[in-house]
Specification:
The protein has 5 helices and 20 strands. By secondary structure, it is mainly beta.
């Protein structure tokens, strides 16, 4: 067993901690991928004077990556201070190389929800709503407690007669169910309990607002302690103009189960109709209502059209801001180089972050305009 004690002070820009490991872990580099409605994944390379760190000391252990940034203390002195903590569990461990002085390792940090893809089940759930099914799986099958997840929902979802899980792992199953009704999720850290927290939302009330950054070229702004945004790009395309849904209710065979929705109410940059059959709803709902009854035909038609519209404008940029995360709305200030969509605000849907001892921290992120966004219509996104 390792007998090397951890150092009390670290010169590293970022800090790695693994529960139960007393060895000093010095972060060499890391890359992280985060997106709405997907478990994040960070691969962290580190070195240690302890040559005997084993997989038993790492795998399935609670761990955290603390991102730090220089904070001015006066008299030209900057001190590294924590600005964001990524909390999770170690799901992978690598021993890469060894020298006389130190050994080079790597680990994979993910939220506990990511472990659900190792659980494959066949099950039937009766007389339960989607949130109830998800909570049942989290609590009863995986032992999560109230502090481990949070439902911040604005709608009341109906109980379903029967839902079947056949051959799906638990992560894919709950992600599919949540996506069907427009519930999205992200992750935060409880630094008091040292746990990751899954947050489930179904409206714009779940967005984090208030972040504004300037548009500044990347030359030297990190060393000056100024977070900024650069390499901004917007891509636009024509998407479906309206969505029609139809279904059959065996209990009311003559009922009209059709619904047609145009969320934009006649926008000229859209075209065509998308027809969907068999979304498994029992009532048509009111297609003219901005908030139709959950799991009605109008609800599914609106949700599907929101998904199409979320693909109408895609935005990408790079930033040095270490506090950025999916679910935040970022506004960018500057001159003519700032497109209106960035000035009005971009909802961050996915991001790829990276840093090394010899390279500054940076984040490439993707998003959609906040002026039209509806995260309920979001599908899992990747930075391309």
């Amino acid at each position: 067993m390792s007998s090397v004690k951890s150092l009390l002070f670290s010169h590293n820009h970022h800090l790695l901690s693994v529960k139960g490991c007393e060895a000093g872990l010095d972060v060499l580099a890391f890359e992280g991928d985060e997106a709405l409605s997907q478990p994040f994944r960070y691969r962290i390379e580190f070195t240690s004077a302890d040559h005997a760190i084993s997989k038993e000391m790492m795998l399935m252990k609670a761990a955290s990556l603390t991102l730090q940034a220089p904070v001015a203390q006066g008299f030209g002195i900057n001190v590294q201070q924590p600005v964001r903590v990524i909390q999770g569990v170690v799901t992978g461990f690598e021993r890469l190389s060894t020298s006389r002085d130190e050994t080079h390792y790597a680990l994979t940090l993910q939220p506990r929800l990511a472990l659900l893809n190792r659980s494959h089940q066949n099950a039937i759930y009766q007389d339960q709503s989607v949130p109830q099914i998800v909570e049942k799986i989290l609590r009863e099958r995986h032992g999560l407690r109230g502090q481990d997840f949070l439902f911040s929902l604005t709608k009341t979802y109906p109980r379903r007669e029967q839902v079947m899980q056949y051959g799906e792992d638990d992560l894919r199953f709950i992600t599919r169910l949540l996506g069907e009704v427009g519930i999205w999720f992200r992750f935060s850290a409880d630094t008091r309990l040292h746990i990751d927290v899954a947050e489930f939302c179904d409206s714009q009330q779940g967005y984090e607002k208030g972040l504004t950054l300037p548009s500044v070229p990347p030359s030297g702004q990190q060393s000056a302690g100024v977070d900024a945004v650069w390499e901004m790009a917007c891509r636009h395309r024509v998407v479906e103009q309206q969505v029609s849904t139809r279904d059959y209710n065996y209990r009311e065979a003559t009922a009209d189960m059709s619904a047609q929705v145009d969320v934009t109410r006649g926008e000229t940059t859209t075209f065509g109709e998308a027809y969907h059959w068999g979304d498994n709803y029992l009532t048509a709902g009111n297609a003219h209502d901005r908030h139709p009854a959950p799991e009605s035909g109008a609800f599914y038609a609106r949700l599907r059209h929101e998904r199409y519209l979320n693909g109408q404008t895609r935005m990408q940029a790079t930033t040095s801001c270490p506090t950025l995360c999916p679910g935040q709305v970022l506004k960018v200030t500057g001159g003519e180089e700032v497109a209106g969509e960035f000035a009005d605000g971009v909802l961050v849907t996915a991001m790829h972050s990276h840093a090394r001892r010899d390279a500054d921290f940076a984040v490439e992120f993707a998003g959609i305009p906040d002026s039209r966004t509806s995260a309920t219509g979001l599908s899992p996104a990747r930075v391309r």
